[in-house]
C-alpha cells in the first residue's frame, strides 16, 4: 500500500491537474520555484498548492521562466553551486530567497517586495576566492594575493559580516573587496563573481587544474587548443600526458574527492607503522590542514626526520620500497634533496623547499578506516586512492619545516611578510635569519620561531586564516 500512497501525494492526479489549470493566476510577473532539498517533498507539495490557491504561479521544474527561487537552506550550503549547474540562461535575473519571503507573501496574499534580509547570501569569502582564482588564471598575481588575503581576514572573523560598517578597521580589505561585500549585503550575491563562474575559460581552467599534475600553464595550453573537457583531452592524440598527469586522470574520481579526518588518521597509522618498521626512533609528524584541525583535506601531509642529523639519508627511499612491498603504492614521484646550507638565507620564499620529498597516491582499504571510507555513489570497491605528501628535513631544520608545512599557505606567507617588514628577519622552510644581527637564529621548536619574532605562539588550529 505504501508506495501507492506515496505516489498519490507526489504526482498530481489528472483531476488535480485540471483543477490547477482553473486556479486564477493573479501575479503574472512572478514565477516561483521551490527547492526540494532540505524542504522535503511533501512540504514542497503542500506549499505549492497553497501558493497556487492564492493565485501564484509555481513551476515544478527550474526553467528560465522562474523569477523567484525559494529555499529553506539558510546557510546556502551547496545551493548556489547547485543553481549554477542547472543551466539557466541568466542566473543573475533570478531572486534567490529564503523561505521567509514565501511565508510573508502567503500571509499577505501577494508577492511582498524583496528586501535584502530575504536573500540567501553567498558567503563573502567564497566569492573572494573565485575572484582570486580568476586573477590567478589571468596571471594577475598582485590582485590574486590581495583577494586571498581579504578572504582570509573575513574567514578569521567570529561571525559573518552583516553590515558594511562591520568591516571598518579590518586590515587588507581593498576597494574591490569592499565593493564585493557591499553587493553581497545588498543583493545576496556578487554579479562579477557570477559572470566569472559562467565564463567558459574560467570553467575550463578550473576543471583542468583540478587534475593532479596540471597547473595553470598546462591548463591554459589545453584551453587554447580548443579543448574543454577531460574526454577531449584524453582523445587528443597530440597531447602527451606526463606520468603525474596520467595518474591524476586514472585516479581522478578518488583524489578529487575530499579526505576525511578518519581517513587521514588511518593513513597516519599506515605511514607510522612503515616508518617505524624501518627505523623505530624516527620522528613522524602530521602536518598540513589536518594538523590545523581541519575536518577535510585534499591530501595528507607528513614530515619525517631522525633524532640524529644525517641518519635521515636514505630513509625515504626505504619507506617508498616498503609501501610498494605492501602493494598499496599507486603512484610515486620522489625528489632527492637539493638542500645546501651555504645558499641560505634565500630571498625566494614562494619557491618549493629543497628537502627530500615524495608525492604519493596510496591505496586505503575500507577496513582500515574507523567508520569506513567515504564512497562514490554506486562504488563497491573496498578501497580508495588518497594523495599523500612526505617531506624529510634534516632534524636541525625541523621546526621551520614544520611551520612551513603546517600552513596555511596564507598564514605562513603573512608571517614571513611580518618577519621581513617588522623584524628585518628572513625565514623560509629551511632557516630563520636576522638581517640586523647578520646571523641565523636557532630554532628547535615552532615556539622558538614565535619567540624570535616577538610574537605570541599561535596554535596550529588558529592558523587556518
Ligand atoms: N607547502 C610548502 N611547500 C610545498 C608545498 C606545500 O611549504 N612545496 C606548504 C603549503 O604552503 C601548505 C602546507 O605545505 O601550507 C600544506 O600544503 P597543502 O597540502 O597543499 O595544503 P593544506 O593546507 O594541507 O590543505 P589541504 O587540506 O587542501 O591539503
Ligand atoms: Mn594538505
Ligand atoms: Mn600537500
Automatic annotation (TrEMBL):
Its EC number is 2.7.7.7. GO terms for molecular function: DNA binding; DNA nucleotidylexotransferase activity; DNA-directed DNA polymerase activity; metal ion binding. It comes from the Eukaryota. Its main location: nucleus. The keyword Zinc does not apply. It is an enzyme of class 2 (transferase). It is found in: Nucleus. Residues 22-119 form the BRCT domain. Mg(2+) binds at residues 299, 301, 389. InterPro entries: BRCT_dom, BRCT_dom_sf, DNA-dir_DNA_pol_X, DNA/RNApol_mu, DNA_pol-X_BS, DNA_pol_B_palm_palm, DNA_pol_lambd_fingers_domain, DNA_pol_lamdba_lyase_dom_sf. Its cofactor is Mg(2+). GO terms for biological process: double-strand break repair via nonhomologous end joining. It catalyses: DNA(n) + a 2'-deoxyribonucleoside 5'-triphosphate = DNA(n+1) + diphosphate. Keywords: Magnesium, Metal-binding, Nucleotidyltransferase, Nucleus, Transferase. Pfam families: BRCT, DNA_pol_B_palm, DNA_pol_B_thumb, DNA_pol_lambd_f, HHH_8. Belongs to the DNA polymerase type-X family. Gap-filling polymerase involved in repair of DNA double-strand breaks by non-homologous end joining (NHEJ). This is DNA-directed DNA/RNA polymerase mu. It comes from Esox lucius (Northern pike). The lineage of its organism: Eukaryota, Metazoa, Chordata, Craniata, Vertebrata. The gene is DNTT.
